[in-house]
C-alpha cells in the first residue's frame, strides 16, 4: 500500500486535522477524505471490503477529491482553500453569490437577445419597405 509523503501528511494535518490522504488501489489515485464528525457514517451498498466507498463508510469518512498519483504537491492546498465554502462565507453566502451571478448573466443574455431581435426586425422592416416600393435606394452616378 502506498503512503503519501511525510511532508504532505504534515501539511495536511496542519491544514485540517480531519483530512486524510489514502491510496486507492482500485482507482490508482490518492483519495483525499474528511472525517464525519456529526451524524451517522455515510451509507453504502457496497459489500466488497476493498471498495473505496466501503472503506470510507466503515471509517466514517467522505470523499473530498481524488488526486492523480503524481499530484501530491502544494497546489492541492491552494485548491482546497479556493473551494472552502466556510472561508467564502458559508453555504448561504455562496448560494446567494451564485444566484446573483446567474441573475446578472440572465439579464445580460436577455439584453443581448433583445438587441439581436431589434436588429433582425429593423433589417426585415427595411427589406419589406424596399420590396413593396416604399423605399428607393439612390446611388450616385459619377
Characterize the structure shown.
There is one protein chain. With 142 residues, this protein is an alpha+beta fold. It folds into two domains: 79 residues, no CATH class; 45 residues. It is 48% helix and 14% strand. The protein contains four helices and three strands; from the N terminus they run H-E-E-H-E-H-H. A three-stranded antiparallel β-sheet has the order 1-2-3, with helices on both faces. A hairpin with a 4-residue loop joins strand 1 and strand 2. It starts with 5 loop residues before the first helix and ends in an 11-residue tail after the last helix. The model has no long low-confidence stretch (mean pLDDT 87).
What is the secondary structure topology, with strand pairs?
Elements: H1 6-15, E1 19-24, E2 29-35, H2 52-59, E3 61-67, H3 75-82, H4 90-131
Antiparallel strand pairs: 1-2, 2-3
User: Can you list the strand order of the major beta sheet?
Assistant: 1-2-3
The helix-strand sequence is: HEEHEHH
Shape: elongated
Number of E strands: 3
Intertermini distance: 88 Å
Low confidence ranges: none
User: Can you count the helices?
Assistant: 4
| Averaged pLDDT | 87
Structural class: alpha+beta
Strand content: 5-15%
- Structural domain count: 2
CA-based gyration radius: 29 Å
Helical residue percent band: 40-55%
Largest sheet: 3 strands, antiparallel
Provide key terms for this protein.
142 residues, alpha+beta, 3 strands, 14% strand, elongated
Sum this structure up briefly.
With 142 residues, this protein is an alpha+beta fold. Helix content is 48%, strand content 14%.
